[in-house]
């Protein structure tokens, strides 16, 4: 379980590294990696659990 948690934190850190807030750079555009990095990581983990659940149930 700790390896899974470490892998998840690594994925989240990768999203956060791609989207660093720069003061004065707020031009109204939405950057999915910067603004929704945690949500994207959670979505990928949820899809992974969904696939794993049905793979084990079959």
What would you note in describing this structure?
- The chain is mainly α and 58 residues long.
- It has one domain.
- Helix content is 72%, strand content 0%.
- The chain has helices spanning 2-18, 32-35, 37-57.
- The longest helix has 21 residues, at 37-57.
- The mean pLDDT is 79.
- Keywords: Membrane, Transmembrane, Transmembrane helix.
Structural class: mainly alpha
Spatial shape = elongated
- Ends: how far apart? 23 Å
Q: Describe the main β-sheet briefly.
A: none
Order of helices and strands: HHH
SS summary, helix count: 3
Count of DSSP strands: 0
List low-pLDDT spans.
Answer: none
The overall pLDDT, averaged over residues, is 79
Please report which band the strand proportion falls in: under 5%, 5-15%, 15-25%, 25-35%, 35-45% or over 45%.
Answer: under 5%
Helix content: over 70%
| Rg | 15 Å
How many domain units?
1
């Amino acid at each position: 379980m700790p390896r899974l948690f470490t892998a998840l934190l690594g994925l989240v850190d990768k999203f956060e590294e791609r989207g660093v807030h720069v003061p004065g750079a707020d031009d109204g555009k939405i950057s999915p990696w910067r603004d929704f990095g945690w949500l994207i990581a959670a979505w990928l983990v949820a899809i992974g659990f969904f696939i794993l659940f049905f793979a084990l149930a079959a």
